[in-house]
Every structure is written in C-alpha cells, then in structure tokens.
Amino acid sequence: MALYPQAPNAVVMIRPHHFCPNEETLKDNSFQSTAPFDKAQVKKLAYEQITAAENTLKAEGISVHIFEDTGTETPDSVFPNNWFSTHTGGHIAIYPMYANNRRKERRSDIIELLKKQYRVQDVIDYSGLEYDNIFLEGTGAMVLDHIERVAYAVRSKRTDTHVLERFCSHFNFEPMVFDAQDSAGIPVYHTNVLMCIGSDYVMAGFDMITNVERRNEIIHRFESSGKKVIYLTEQQISAFCGNALELKGTNERILALSSTAYNALTQAQKAVLEQCVKLVPLEVSAIELAGGSVRCMLAGIHLSKR
Q1: What does the alpha-carbon distance between residue 244 and residue 273 come to, in Å, rounded to a whole number?
Q2: I need a surface site. Which of 21, 117, 126, 162 has the fewest CB within 10 A?
Q3: SUPFAM superfamilies in the record, alphabetically (predicted)?
C-alpha cells in the first residue's frame, strides 16, 4: 500500500435495492437532476449499474467489499465515501452528515468488516457534531492529497472549517480551504465534484475557484509537486469529470470514472491521463441523477490487510 498512497487497491461499495434521488439534499446540490423520472426504472437500473461497476473493478484486480442496502430510508446510501474514510497507519474516521436521512447510512457492520480484514488501530467518530449543526461529509467535503498531505476543501454547509482543522490535526493533513461556485453563482456543494487528485496528475475546475490568488496558489502547489495539471471546464464539471478515483489494479493504476465523464473529456485530456493511468469508464447514469458519480460511490481502503 505504501507504494501507492493515493491509489487504494480495495474499496467499499453499497448496492441499493431501492435507490432514488434524495429530496432532502436537492436544495443545495445543483448536480442533482430535477427532471421527472420513472422511479421503478431508476431503482432497477441503479442496482444493475452498481453490480456491473463492481464486476468491472474486480476484473481490473480491485478488491471490492460490496454491502447490500435493502432499506427504503437511505436514498443516498450508494455514496459511502461521505460517512467514513480510512487512512494509512490503521485509522478510520466517521463523519457528521448534513441531511437527516443520510445519518442513517452509517453501518457498524462495515466498520466491523474493516477491523476483521484490515489492521485498524482506532476509529475517530466526529458524528456527534451533528447535534451542533456542524458537518464534514468525508471525502466528498475533502479531496485528500495523500502524498503531499493536503486536504483540499470547498467551504459549504457540508464542510465546516473547524471540524476540517480537527480532522487535519488528527490525521496529519494541512487544510487548504477555498470558495468555489458555478457561473450562476451557485456554490459547489462537495469538493469531490470539482477536483480529482491522482498520484501524478490533478484535474479540476480551477476557474470555478472564486479567489484568483487562492486559485493560483493551489495550481502552483500541484505544479511544484510535479503533477500534470488538467483544467476542466464548468461543463465538464457538470458531467462529473472531477468525480473520479485512482485505484491500484493488478497490473497498473486505473482511473475509475463515469461514462458521462469519459465522454466529456477531450482527446487531449485523455491522452495526458493515459500517460499515468488506464481509464476505466463505468456506466452509472441512474446514480448520477442523485448528484454524485463514481468517486462518491467508492470508499477507498487505505489500510493494510491483516
């Protein structure tokens, strides 16, 4: 694992049996679809697409721990990266969630499986901060550079900077907070729709970072650490190009991204990425109706196997 700190070779996924875009999160998630949809069709499609994505990742040599969600009270359970994260050295964090019905997604059976199969030293639980209306939605709220030890975070209702600082001091990251919005002035709700950090590249909607000085500082950071910098347009961000995750497959590192995102990247951008990773598009159009994509669906496991 230490060789590829940015690219885990195992993930947790949740397969939903009653998937549906979450009405509780619609107010501040501009990526969520407002178009009418056939609930039964979307539910069936989501189940099939998660299953197909699981099989594709396994074929690439990724360890996939899949959990079933048969309940009807957790429409966003397919996005486990928001309520927990794992870290080298055997650490797990559990996070405070903004939407009431998302708090029900936390599952002790997932944490127990991780303890059983991986070396876990401690679990730091921030979820009690929900009672103070303070939130930090995991690796949705933060995009972590595991190599440079920086936590990039867009300021929002789902990203409280005080909890972020607490997380950073516990887990040895430097916080890098900034504001970002689309051309209509709507704030970006989660950092991981804006930015994807790989081992030797970064792609992000840099122009959506509102403070020019901060934007240049962030770009300079990536360039000085030797990463190839790929600029995504606002349209590409809307197509979930920033919502991808680098993983370590059997033979090479891969970038798991959605078919929507893959089709929105230019040939030149794909060529830069393909110098670093194999692109593995996953068809998750039903899941994307909920305003998240492949990165949100994968909780990377940065723990050592027992």
Answers
A1: 12
A2: 162
A3: Pentein
> What token pair was written down for 115?
């303890």
DSSP secondary-structure letter at 132?
G
| Residue at 207: amino acid letter | D
Residues contacting residue 53 through CB under 8 Å, at least 6 positions apart: 13, 256, 282, 283, 284, 294, 297
Q: Please name the residues in contact with 188: beta carbons below 8 A apart, sequence gap of 6 or more.
A: 154, 156, 180, 181, 182, 194, 205, 208
Report pTM.
Answer: 0.95
The domain 10-300 belongs to what CATH superfamily? L-arginine/glycine Amidinotransferase; Chain A (3.75.10.10)
Per the CB < 8 A criterion, the answer to whether 197 and 145 are in contact is yes
Count CA within 13 A, CB hemisphere, residue 73.
Answer: 6
| Structure tokens given for 72 | 């009807």
| 297 and 306 Cβ atoms separated by less than 8 Å | no
Q: Where are the domains of the chain?
A: 10-300
Among 258, 256, 240, smallest CA distance to 300 is for 256
Alpha helices in 32-130 (DSSP H): 39-59, 108-117
Q: Say what the pLDDT of residue 117 is.
A: 98
User: Which parts of the chain sit beneath pLDDT 70?
Assistant: 1-2, 21-37
First to last CA, the chain: 13
Cα separation of 237 and 239, whole Å? 5
